[in-house]
Design brief:
The structure is a single chain. This protein is an alpha/beta fold. Helices cover 36% and strands 19% of the residues. The protein is built from eight helices and twelve strands. The strands form three sheets. Strands 2-1-3-4-5-9-12 form a seven-stranded parallel beta sheet, sandwiched between helices. A three-stranded mixed beta sheet has the order 6-7-11. Strand 6 and strand 7 form a beta hairpin. Helix 1 packs across helix 6, helix 3 runs parallel beside helix 4 and helix 7 packs parallel to helix 8. The site of NADP nicotinamide-adenine-dinucleotide phosphate has 25 residues, from helix 1 and strand 4.
Amino acid sequence: MKVGVIGGTGRIGSRLIAHLQAAGHQGTALVRSTGVDVVSGEGLREGLDGCAVCVDVSTPPAFDESARRFQEEAMSSMVEAGRAAGVEHYVVLSIVGCDEVPQVPYYAAKAYQEQALADSGVPWSVLRATQFHEFIPDVMDWTTERGVVRLPSTPLQPVAAADVVNRLVEIVLGPPTRARANLAGPESLALDDLARHVLALHPDGRAVVTDENAGLFAAVPGRELTAPRDAMLAPTTFDQWLRDSWPA
Ligand SMILES: NC(=O)c1ccc[n+]([C@@H]2O[C@H](COP(=O)([O-])OP(=O)(O)OC[C@H]3O[C@@H](n4cnc5c(N)ncnc54)[C@H](OP(=O)(O)O)[C@@H]3O)[C@@H](O)[C@H]2O)c1
């Protein structure tokens, strides 16, 4: 089966393509470096030629309000080009709880993306994952100043990117579900404590200070981003990932 992967050179996309190839399928990366822009639609129709499935694991360039415009353009381009190319299944990777935190523009844009796909009339599936283990060091860097990482105690339930890809492959190779499936890591931890785990196992001279007003996740004091009741729980704990897969 041929699968077009918008965002196929990214953290998830590159792993997804490797898994598909290993399983005897053909995954093709549809990204700007291969002449495909999901926002303008340039190259997408040709890129999806012969693809039975189109997966979108691309990411808007910023976490601000511009993410909404990216998703509006991307969803419209993907569905239009996919229809013209005869794509039979559209899959999007989204975020657990994204529709419950409209105060976070990037997450509101992901909720828009899901709904636009569901409303488009094409056969679809959505996998919602929690924050990746690999994402936590990035979050720490955003709020590091003079050797201090300031982070709120937002409850998260991060998941390893490798576990996300394993579940994504199953969905991509299965029939359209017209549903949102949730995937989370095995345990919930406060964001500031996740940062402490990172620095305990990989000390780099920084210290963590709890600051309920620091960074993007300060807007989410509740448990909206942790596993809902129906979530599938992936096996890899954060500490296991820190020991086995560092650096990301
Ligand atoms: N980070 C998390 O913790 C998390 C959690 C749950 C879900 N997700 C979702 O998972 C997905 C994948 O995340 P990731 O970490 O793998 O992303 P990533 O590593 O940042 O990769 C983004 C990909 O998007 C492509 N891209 C960006 N703009 C594009 C455009 N205009 N046209 C075509 N391709 C474009 C990039 O390639 P080029 O730049 O070469 O075009 C790259 O291949 C995202 O949808 C994200 O919302 C993330």
